[in-house]
Amino acid sequence: MRSSLTIFVIGFVLGSSLGIGGLWTQVVQPTKAQLEKIEQENGVMQQAVESATKALKDAAKDLRAEADVTGASVTGPTTTRPPGTSPQPTPAPTFGSSRSLSIADTLDSKAAELEQTRTSLRTIR
User: Fold this and answer.
1) Cα radius of gyration (the chain)
2) Phi, psi of 88 (to 5 degrees)
């Protein structure tokens, strides 16, 4: 009886060790590798979102600057003026400049959305 109890305990200990070793190699290590890969991909995504946000903001800034230059074209008044007065030019915004400003506003809103997404991704981590 004593020998069978000893054999049972030895078998139990060896079986548990092999079971834990199998669990470690079949579950824990692959899961750890997947988590590291996901964290690495998350870092790449963070950088991509940051780059896209910067590009959108830069494009909006450039469009606004272009619209300011385009909208700054002036035209003189077409009415007659009294002698001795100089013409007062008035800015004449063009269709292109208002369209550029509209696009710039859209780009800024998309950049803000990306910034919110990036912030929420950081909190998940």
Assistant:
1) 35
2) -105, 105
The dihedrals phi and psi of 80, each to the nearest 5 degrees, come to -75, 150
Residue pair 49/114 in contact by the 8 Å Cβ criterion: yes
Dump pLDDT digits (tens) for 74-92. 444 444 555 555 555 545 5
Exposure b/e, 3-13, CB count within 10 A at least 16 = b: eeeeeeeeeee
Measured in whole angstroms, the distance separating CA 71 from the mean position of its chain's CA atoms is 32
User: CA 26 to CA 41: how far, in whole Å?
Assistant: 23
Which tokens hold the place of 67? Answer: 């619209």
pLDDT tens digits for range 39-51: 999 888 889 999 9
CA quadruple 27, 29, 34, 38: dihedral, nearest 10: 130
